[in-house]
Description:
Blueprint lengths: L3 E4 L7 E4 L1 E12 L2 E12 L3 E5 L6 H8 L7 E6 L2 E2 L5 H7 L1 E4 L11 H7 L8 H14 L1 H5 L10 H13 L5 E5 L7 H16 L3 E5 L3 H7 L2 E6 L2 E6 L1 H6 L1 H8 L2
Parallel strand pairs: 5-10, 5-11, 8-9, 9-10
Antiparallel strand pairs: 1-2, 3-4, 3-6, 6-7, 11-12
Amino acid sequence: MSTVTINTSAPGAPLAAVEPALQVRSLVVNYGHIEAVRGIDLDLARGRITTLVGANGAGKSTTLLALSGLIAKQGGQVRLDGQDISTMPAHRIVASGMVQVAEGRATLTTLSVRENLELGAYTRRDGLAARLKDLEHVYELFPRLRERATGLAGNLSGGEQQMLAIGRALMARPRVLLLDEPSMGLAPIIVQDIFRTLQRINAEGMTIFLVEQNVKQALKVAHAAYVLENGRIVLQGTGRELLADPRVQDAYLGT
Length: 255
């Protein structure tokens, strides 16, 4: 398997070779006659945060949906820890160790917070004790969910629903966590809380792939970053490198 050079500590640290947890080659996704993703290559270094940024309509969410098996790919290969998952259905991809937190959270509003979390573990076969241990860890990460555990998910605030969506994904015990616009519609103070928790999850060893319109926030926490325009990767580097790149500043940061 090939390697990718990426940070091994904080964003902006010296580069070192790390085996990719997820490797994407020549990914193509079409909507009818429109080529939404045009043969892109991505490497997600194990235990690191990688972000994909770009304008609305660039193909970011489409990329995540294709990686998760939720929409069809017209070309390319996806390998998770060396295993080819390119043609796997979505539920098998989850069972193989990659889980997506959907844009808009997709919580089950008529179920309780705890029921939503327990459903996240539906592919697991490792026993009740292991699932309860992970449930406790989710409550530790998001104490508000413990407080609201018996209440309906539909009564949660937007920030609490985002916490629930992330916690539910963690209950599947993934090795790679995909997040689609976790800051969408949230107050700045809640966004800071969410991103701090993502950094904590990453520090515990989770590989994270973050699609985010809040370019500045995403690049601040990312070890590696890609810029997508019109379905093509146009820039890549460390988060800190792209944060300082005049082209990124002009196009996305308004500086």
